[in-house]
Write a sequence for this structure.
């Protein structure tokens, strides 16, 4: 009954909308704990799906589910303290929708049926829209409208892609259930033209949600306008779920012997996203927008790594894990900074090293981590991707890749050093930092650090089996 | 005469009639500038599109579950969603699309081009596809592209939602044209419909808020977030 991981947050989410805020907060943290426990049970194979025609346990799905569940737990602990500090009138909506959001993301991670995956991804858009609108400002309104419209239209195109994949099956006269596992087994018999067309629409559709350029335009607005715990969830959990849709499509094409076609598309989108992020990060004035562009960059890196193949796919999966951990930690720190200075602009902040020592530590360490410095995991994952690309002889692509990485580091470090060390004129601290709002960030960073030096064998094996389906190996 | 009338009422002709009505509704919506008229056109189109599977030859063997689903779809696409839009339009002060990004004559002309495009694509595909109803594919492509066009060429948020709905109708028609009945799983189709309904509800809530904060639903007003 692995579907309970979807059903429990669903019920809890609906319940919390009707109970008092204090009780709601407890339910939030308890549900997060229970979800992690259930996920762990599923991870070790103790429970399996009860509806195999719709859901299945896959290696990549479980990996993303585990990351999502852990990140969600840390964020919900943070959110309890954050919400009591900001006193948002619609807190029950936050708690309820964040739980419903978890439920839909779990559905995506477990989905095996093409259309169920689509339903799940569209539902994540709908359930996270109220989270972005939480502050009810005009800018939040604009961000929500863009988010809902762009993502809904994008995902509608993905539905068309699903129909094309079904078409490729009908044309070759095969009758199997339209699940990824069943289609994978007969992949080589599917009609290649329609399969390719389907993949293009799937990438455009789910790529919109994942934040691949040029469909990324909603992402910086949504991430900067949402309250920080919600931004952390969007960046650390939602983007992975959308990536899963793209990954499944690539998997199907690889099994059909069209891996080269889909790889090149992924590499193209990946590099383009990185370049766009590099250009826009340079002139950023808001730190949350900067983090959002960094998410676009990292999604580009993952798409690039998956497209390259070989050892780079292993790097891409590692990158996915570490990006979720570090980026959500960064957004949580950004929440503390926003509470402290009361502004999203870099110019209004400064001297964090002295004013907010704990937040400074997590923010700066997170920045070092996301830029690819050891001892954090992104160092290894980027190195593996670069090595993989050289092995495949993709010299031009990898040059662009490294160039974009350098540009992004240069652009972001300018802002981060300003925030951390430059003197601050209005040294008035609105809300002091506390342990409840810094410990989750520390925990996320610590896990990234630990996973960098010691990767448990079961995670290693899961990644290896996941990438084996797209021709990757170590 | 009797033969002619029985031929007229044959299943295929009825589906052709429905397709023509859909294309007509697409052209009407491209040329219309009153928001209320657009909502009514959408309701009409929703009903026509929902009824289409009833009159398709390869869908003739309908069972109990598919009839139920058809009714649910009729209620959602023909009544609930237009009802929500109707309620949203009622509250808005300015009932007309004042300055569309692309004018009405140009839009209508674009609509005609979409029909040609649809016919071209359908012709190319019908060589490789075992589809007996060409017109269905033409309509699907036209509706889909006109929906996208409406979404991009209008500034009122309500018109954009209508464009999205039209696009969704086009995709649904495409699905009925391409996929065989054997794949249909009613739970899954219901899920898609539910997503659509909740989506329109959420868009309605945002619309309401845009209207409350700006006293208009013009998306040109939403332009504060920029990369500087």
């Amino acid at each position: 009954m692995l579907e309970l991981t979807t059903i429990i947050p669903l019920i809890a989410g609906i319940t919390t909308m009707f109970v008092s805020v204090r009780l709601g907060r407890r339910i939030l943290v308890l549900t997060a704990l229970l979800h992690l426990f259930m996920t762990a049970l599923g991870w070790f194979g103790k429970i399996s799906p009860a509806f195999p025609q719709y859901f299945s346990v896959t290696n990549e799905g479980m990996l993303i589910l585990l990351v999502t569940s852990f990140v969600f737990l840390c964020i919900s602990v943070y959110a309890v303290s954050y919400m009591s500090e900001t006193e948002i009138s619609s807190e029950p909506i936050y708690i309820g929708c964040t739980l419903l959001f978890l439920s839909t993301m779990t559905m995506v991670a477990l989905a095996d049926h093409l259309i169920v995956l689509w339903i799940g991804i569209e539902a994540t858009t709908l359930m996270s829209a109220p989270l972005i609108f939480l502050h009810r400002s005009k800018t939040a309104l604009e961000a929500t409208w863009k988010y809902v419209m762009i993502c809904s239209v994008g995902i509608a195109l993905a539905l068309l892609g699903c129909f094309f994949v079904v078409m490729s099956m009908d044309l070759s006269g095969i009758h199997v259930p339209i699940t990824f596992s069943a289609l994978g087994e007969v992949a080589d018999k599917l009609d290649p033209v329609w399969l390719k067309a389907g993949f293009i629409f799937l990438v455009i559709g789910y790529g919109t949600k994942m934040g691949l350029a040029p469909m990324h335009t909603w992402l910086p607005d949504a991430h900067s306008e949402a309250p920080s715990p919600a931004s952390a969830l969007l960046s650390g959990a939602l983007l992975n779920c959308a990536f899963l849709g793209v990954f499944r499509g690539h998997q199907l094409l690889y099994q059909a012997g069209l891996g080269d076609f889909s790889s090149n598309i992924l590499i193209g989108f990946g590099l383009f996203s990185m370049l766009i992020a590099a250009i826009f990060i340079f002139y950023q004035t808001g730190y949350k927008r900067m983090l959002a562009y960094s998410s676009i960059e990292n999604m580009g890196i993952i798409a690039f790594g998956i497209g390259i193949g070989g050892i780079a796919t292993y790097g891409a999966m590692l990158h996915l894990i570490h990006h979720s951990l570090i980026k959500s930690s960064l957004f949580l720190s950004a929440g503390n900074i926003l509470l402290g200075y009361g502004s999203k602009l870099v110019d209004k902040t400064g001297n964090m090293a002295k004013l907010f020592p704990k937040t400074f530590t997590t923010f700066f360490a997170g920045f070092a981590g996301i830029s690819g410095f050891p001892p954090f995991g992104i160092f290894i994952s980027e190195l593996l991707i670069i090595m993989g690309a050289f092995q495949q002889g993709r010299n031009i692509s990898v040059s662009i890749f490294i160039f974009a990485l350098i540009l992004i580091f240069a652009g972001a470090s300018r802002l981060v050093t300003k925030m951390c060390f430059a003197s601050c004129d209005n040294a008035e601290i609105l809300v002091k930092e506390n342990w409840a709002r810094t410990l989750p960030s520390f925990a996320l960073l610590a896990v990234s650090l630990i996973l960098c030096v010691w990767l448990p064998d079961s995670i290693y094996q899961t990644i290896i089996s996941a990438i084996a389906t797209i021709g990757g190996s170590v | 005469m009797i033969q002619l009338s029985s031929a007229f009422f044959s299943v295929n002709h009825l589906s052709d009639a429905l397709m023509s009505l859909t294309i007509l509704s697409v052209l009407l919506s491209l040329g219309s500038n009153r928001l209320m008229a657009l909502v009514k056109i959408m309701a009409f189109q929703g009903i026509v599109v929902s009824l289409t599977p009833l009159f398709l030859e390869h869908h003739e063997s309908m069972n109990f579950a598919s009839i139920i689903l058809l009714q649910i779809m009729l209620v959602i696409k023909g009544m609930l969603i237009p009802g929500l839009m109707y309620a949203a339009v009622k509250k808005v002060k300015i009932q007309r699309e004042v300055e569309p990004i692309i004018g009405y004559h140009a839009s209508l002309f674009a609509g005609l081009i979409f029909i040609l495009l649809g016919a071209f694509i359908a012709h190319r595909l019908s060589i490789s596809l075992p589809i007996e109803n060409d017109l269905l594919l033409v309509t699907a492509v036209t509706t889909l592209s006109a929906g996208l066009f409406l979404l991009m060429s209008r500034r009122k948020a309500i018109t954009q939602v209508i464009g999205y709905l039209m696009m969704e109708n086009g995709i649904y028609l495409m699905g009925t044209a391409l996929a065989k009945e054997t794949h249909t799983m009613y739970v899954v189709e219901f899920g898609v419909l539910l997503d659509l309904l909740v989506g329109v509800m959420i868009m309605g809530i945002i619309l309401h808020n845009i209207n409350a904060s700006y006293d208009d639903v013009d998306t040109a007003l939403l332009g504060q977030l920029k990369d500087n």
Chain A has a mean pLDDT of 92. Chain A touches chain B through 47 residues (CB under 8 Å).
